[in-house]
Write a structure and sequence with these properties.
Blueprint (H helix, E strand, L loop, with lengths): L3 E5 L7 H11 L6 E4 L18 H10 L2 E7 L7 H10 L16 E8 L10 H9 L3 E9 L8 H4 L3 H8 L31
The structure holds flavin mononucleotide.
The site of flavin mononucleotide (FMN) has 17 residues, from helix 1 and strand 4.
Length: 199
């Protein structure tokens, strides 16, 4: 199995989310592959249209990775539209036999960047549930705050230093756990009810 894949779902390649991703990458023994969604052609979900764009490439990259980090800014209290579009496309039931699920048995984490002190209530829920429905194992979230549109500062970026170790730790060490959530009211993955695509 391959390395860690970071899906950078910001509207800019060199923005705050990219800075957070670079910090994570610099602390990992093996640099992750970074898929920069704003440089890709990703069309909105449409029933039965299949993968006529870069989603096919992303599917392959996820399949070849051992873990996946979704990295998104908070745009209007939610994940970026790029990431939401990707989730809709990855879960497209026309890509699998009915009820088969996509079955990506790999760990996944979230890096979110924003200007507010904490993540909006429920921010992680669609991601946790979508990841769970795709049989990914939820690792947790790191929220990196920045002020007044400035790049995130060292004290915020430092939170990412431990995440690389979490990601690279083999599952049997027991170091994979949800410890990093910053939002209030987030359900533990165990309480997530599987979506019907997951059965
Ligand atoms: C369109 C837009 C909407 C935003 N909405 C929010 C928001 O709802 N909550 C928040 O904390 N920050 C919000 N921000 C601030 C960004 O989340 C923050 O600056 C982030 O780090 C930007 O990351 P980027 O440089 O990768 O785009 C918003 C920024 C933009 C451009």
């Amino acid at each position: 199995m391959g390395s860690c894949l970071v899906i950078l779902a910001s509207a800019r390649s060199r923005g705050n989310t990219a800075i957070a991703v670079e910090r994570l990458a610099s602390r990992m023994g093996r640099r992750p592959e970074v898929a920069d969604m704003c440089r890709m052609n990703i069309v909105p979900f449409s029933y039965g249209s299949g993968d006529c764009d870069d989603v096919a490439r992303l599917r392959r990259a996820i399949s070849e990775s051992s873990s996946v980090v979704f990295a998104t800014p908070v745009y209007w209290y939610a994940m970026s539209a790029l990431l939401k579009t990707l989730l809709e496309r990855l879960g497209d039931p026309s890509h699998q036999p009915p009820g088969a699920g996509t079955g990506w048995e790999r760990s996944t984490w979230l890096i979110a960047t924003g200007g507010d002190p904490v993540l909006p209530l429920g921010f992680e829920v669609p991601l946790i549930r979508a990841a769970t429905a795709m049989r990914m194992h939820w690792g947790g979230t790191v929220y990196v705050r920045s002020h007044d549109g400035e790049p995130p500062q060292e004290d915020e970026l430092r939170q990412l230093d431990g995440l690389g170790g979490e990601i690279e730790a083999p599952p049997h060490t027991g170091r994979h756990r949800v410890t990093l959530s910053h939002a209030e009211g987030v359900p533990a993955p165990a309480s997530v009810v599987p979506h019907r695509w997951d059965r």
